[in-house]
């Protein structure tokens, strides 16, 4: 065993270790950047349905109950939690009703539909000068809005805050006693 051999073996060993460390580092980095990286949850208002339309023949007692369904889709490998919030319904700019939406935790890579009911009573709408024209024309247009504040968590250390704004244009048809809605949402973080 000459004195030159030991450094050579040492060099090979050192090289292999370095390469292994680099590979491990790259694998970990890739994992963090792809699978573990917190992603935006999707919060969308699916639909607004007309649950009740009371006193159709007496407009002074019109009482409309809307069902609002919000879908929360969490693409993360960790849970997503959002706090209590509310849905606000307005009729052509006049606040008409609101309903609480309870906070929830969506498990990793899961989704939930959250449903809330909003009761709109006619007395809130009468102050708007468009009401009788719209009522006689048979179509009442509302908008609903909701803001969700949430936080996605992966491995307890990777966290992302997300705020989602959801709004819908709702048309209620008096004679058919049904409703149609167009919803959109946007997210900020
Ligand atoms: C409106 O209708 C709902 C459901 O039928 C009922 O629970 C509520 O008491 C009504 N409200 C008014 C003010 O009539
Ligand atoms: C209500 O909304 C519908 C659908 O967006 C629209 O076609 C209609 O013109 C609106 N009616 C009024 C009175 O604004
Ligand atoms: C509402 O009812 C009318 C008449 O029954 C129907 O033509 C229309 O498709 C219905 N709209 C929705 C959104 O269900």
Automatic annotation (TrEMBL):
Where, subcellularly, is it found? Membrane
Main location (coarse class): membrane
Its cellular-component GO annotations read:
membrane
Q: What membrane topology was assigned to this protein in its record?
A: Single-pass membrane protein
The source's domain of life comes to Eukaryota
GO terms, biological process: defense response to other organism
Q: Where are the transmembrane segments?
A: 12-36
Please state every residue range assigned to the domain named Late embryogenesis abundant protein LEA-2 subgroup.
Answer: 69-127
Tell me any Pfam family this protein matches: LEA_2
The record's keywords, sorted A to Z, are: Membrane, Transmembrane, Transmembrane helix
User: What PANTHER family does the record point to?
Assistant: LATE EMBRYOGENESIS ABUNDANT (LEA) HYDROXYPROLINE-RICH GLYCOPROTEIN FAMILY, LATE EMBRYOGENESIS ABUNDANT PROTEIN, LEA_2 SUBGROUP
Query: This protein is called what?
Result: Late embryogenesis abundant protein LEA-2 subgroup domain-containing protein
């Amino acid at each position: 065993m000459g004195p030159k051999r030991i450094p050579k073996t040492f060099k090979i060993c050192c090289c292999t270790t370095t390469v292994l460390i680099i590979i491990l580092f790259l694998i970990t980095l890739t994992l963090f950047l792809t699978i573990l990286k917190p992603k935006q949850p999707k919060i969308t208002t699916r639909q607004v349905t007309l649950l009740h339309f009371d006193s159709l023949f007496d407009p002074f007692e019109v009482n409309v109950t809307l069902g609002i369904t919000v879908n929360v889709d969490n693409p993360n490998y960790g849970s997503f939690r959002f706090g209590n919030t509310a849905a606000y319904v307005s009729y052509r700019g006049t606040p008409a009703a609101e309903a609480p939406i309870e906070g929830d935790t969506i498990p990793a890579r899961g989704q939930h539909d959250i449903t809330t009911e909003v009761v709109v009573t006619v007395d809130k709408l009468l102050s708007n000068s468009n009401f009788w024209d719209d009522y006689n024309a048979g179509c009442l247009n509302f908008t609903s809005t909701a803001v969700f504040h949430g936080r996605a968590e992966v491995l307890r250390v990777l966290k992302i805050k997300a705020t989602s704004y959801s709004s819908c244009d709702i048309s209620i048809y008096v004679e058919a006693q049904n409703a149609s809605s167009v919803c959109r949402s946007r997210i900020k973080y």
